[in-house]
Amino acid sequence: DAGVIQSPRHEVTEMGQEVTLRCKPISGHDYLFWYRQTMMRGLELLIYFNNNVPIDDSGMPEDRFSAKMPNASFSTLKIQPSEPRDSAVYFCASGNTEAFFGQGTRLTVV
Amino acid sequence: KQEVTQIPAALSVPEGENLVLNCSFTDSAIYNLQWFRQDPGKGLTSLLLIQSSQREQTSGRLNASLDKSSGRSTLYIAASQPGDSATYLCAVSGGSNYKLTFGKGTLLTVNP
After folding, report:
1. What percent of chain A has pLDDT over 90?
2. CA atoms within 13 A on the CB side of A8
3. What is the pLDDT of residue B96?
4. Backbone φ and ψ of A19, nearest 5°
5. A15, A110 contact by CB (below 8 A)
6. pLDDT recorded at residue B39
7. Other C-beta atoms lying within 10 Å of the C-beta of residue B61
8. What is the DSSP letter of A96?
9. Nearest of A4, A6, A32 to residue A96 by alpha carbon
10. What is the DSSP letter of B82?
């Protein structure tokens, strides 16, 4: 298996633009997680899904953030409109008992 | 709310030394504990997973222990090498759900 695949690896966008981050989890994993990593706050859980159903989105910072998992092999995290404070590395992870992380998307909002 | 603390925040050791990284958590009702490694600009690599019913796990030069009742885990690295230099992160999952709560990590530097 190629592991958890995220795209794009890097994204630079202007404030106010919509940003969509994509994730392909490892086949057979029931759980999918979206995390955000910053120097100040470390790794924060934004939302996680179990069998494509959102279970806990309490970490989503604002209504500007939304996540979907239309099927077992694909998830998106959307920020609309984006702001400079959203700049961070966004990780997707999948697993059953053990979590496996993608390489992340480095988002810069200017 | 679960909180995870890792001590020290940074550690620098000479090559060949044995070392211990510490992790503590406030809520002992965990499902499992996982140790990760993160290289600069990269994702997280899972090193060891300890289920709540286990006391320790070993993989090569790495040994992780878990004391649920005291809310502590240690990662022991034997005969450290420069290639071990990275940030090591500890994460615990809750008893009623599977979301992982992370510590801030320990930045390890092994000097040749």
Report:
1. 89
2. 9
3. 59
4. -125, 135
5. yes
6. 95
7. 13
8. S
9. A32
10. G
- Interchain CB distance below 8 Å, B98 and A93: no
- How far apart, in whole angstroms, are the C-alpha atoms of residue B39 and residue B45? 9
Residue A75 C-alpha, separation from nearest chain B C-alpha, in angstroms: 17
A50: which chain B residues are within 8 Å (Cβ-Cβ)?
98
Chain A neighbors of B91, CB-CB under 8 A: 43, 99
In degrees rounded to 5, what are phi and psi of residue A84? Answer: -55, -35
Residue of B nearest to A42 (CA): B104
Q: Please identify which residue in the block is written with the tokens 């992870």.
A: A93
> Are the Cβ atoms of B46 and A55 closer than 8 angstroms?
no
Point out which residues pair with A62 in neighbouring strands. Answer: none
Q: How many A×B Cβ pairs under 8 Å?
A: 47
pLDDT digits (tens, 9 = 90+) for B39-67: 998 899 999 999 989 999 999 999 999 99
Say what the pLDDT of residue B1 is.
Answer: 84
